[in-house]
Amino acid sequence: MKALLLAGGLGTRLRPLTDNIPKPMVPILGQPHLKRLINYLALSGIDEVVVTTGYRAKDIELALGDGSDLGVAIRYVNENTPLGTGGAIKNAEKHFDGTFLIFNADILSEIDVQAMLKHHKQHNAAATIAVKQVNNPSQYGVIEYDADYRIRSFKEKPPPSETSSNWINAGVYAFEPAILREIPAGLTVSVERETFPALLSQNHKLVAYRYEGYWLDIGTTDKYLLAHRDILDGKCRTVAGHSGSYISPTATVSPEATVVEPVYIGDKAIVDDKAVIGPHAVLGCSAYVGYGSMVIDSILLDGVKVGQNLKVINSVAVNNCRVYDNLISDTCCEF
Predict the structure, then answer these.
(1) Residues of the chain under the 50 pLDDT cut
(2) What is the pLDDT of residue 17?
(3) Whole domain around residue 108: which residue ranges?
(4) What is the pLDDT of residue 282?
(5) What pLDDT, on a 0 to 100 scale, did the predictor assign at position 239?
(6) Active site residue 311
(7) Which residue in 58, 94, 121, 157 is the catalytic one?
(8) What is residue 8's predicted lDDT score, i.e. its pLDDT?
(9) Per the structure, how many domains does the chain have?
(10) pLDDT reported for residue 243
(11) Sequence-distant contacts of 9-15: CB under 8 A, at least 24 apart
């Protein structure tokens, strides 16, 4: 079984974190998100992955290679210019001759892909869209469907008065390859706003798959922080083995420091005397927290150095930055 991962976005909402890291490669507890997703798919029975790339494409290819270390075969399709989600799918058409899955690569979930594929086949769908129930759907693409799961309409960010549905597009799809013929080649196309409504108007059978597990779009700094809190609290099982606290055996934590669980302290990280780490603190490889400093509800990526007697709260410090002042609800990229 094959999967297509849409990984070509610029990640502008995550800047400055994505100034030097492609959005799908931002680390989740020390490992690139895209690598974690591929590991999860391999365990779910996917044996071949096609990755669409654009921004910093070489970084993605160097990190993932041919997939042999991840238990899958990986192929890459690069976009010289952004083509949108629909254009990126069309651009990878030659790699698919049977039913396949599509994932937006900035989604963190624990969707059962085999159950979704079974649902897709049982309903003889041309395309199946995973849908997730949310309290306030007005910031999302809303999907209305009937009792047989057949999709009847798409509404983009509707006010509450215009829809009775609170099921949104979860960014995971099952496609039959014939659908790809309906997407124009060489153009910028949105699968959400253009392709799906067009398919519906042509009476193609589009089906909703109700997904009720963990789901989060990690495309903003706030959501990136939330993802780590949820993982440490055990709310997301995709990142296996990391609910609760983890302190690397190669990390050095002073006996005079205070660790408030849950935390993640990566390889070769150093926590100095009187420092306070946690709760919900993540320290990447070789991160350093100086004497008397506090890191709470925050992420220090690899190589970050925090000076003495500082507070880092609800913030992200990008790779190798130096924190010289208190960092409260902010992103640090000082070098």
Answers:
(1) 240
(2) 81
(3) 2-213
(4) 96
(5) 57
(6) no
(7) 157
(8) 83
(9) 2
(10) 56
(11) 9/54, 9/55, 9/105, 9/106, 10/54, 10/55, 10/82, 11/55, 11/106, 11/219, 13/219, 13/220, 13/221, 14/219, 14/220, 14/221, 14/224
